[in-house]
Amino acid sequence: MNTNVFKIDPELTKSIKKFRTRRSKNHTALLIRIDEDNLVIEEDELIEDVDLDNFCDELPDVDPRYILLSYNRVHEDGRLSNPLIFICYIPEGIPTQTTMLYSSAKNLVQNESLINGKALELRDATDFDEEWLLSQI
What we know:
GMF
């Protein structure tokens, strides 16, 4: 599928810019969805103070999302870092068309988010916890 068929909502672009420049002492997630009828990529929800071990409860069971996660990490030497992580959440058991839609727009959303590096793939929301996240980054 050609990514030119997708439109990025201008409000999402503003939200991403604001998300990238914010400073928070807590984990924060920006959830992004695709309006499948209009092929518009748009903000779904901003979740502040994310509890990584219970984050799976915030994710829809049958609807894919792109997740921008601001992860506050304390290193073994005491340094603090705040990496931005891109996660593509496509739950199993959804229609093939929806899977293809989200898979084909993944690079577009990641590029719009200005997040370099690999995109993490999440198929089962219950797998998401801090241990899983640390094993992926």
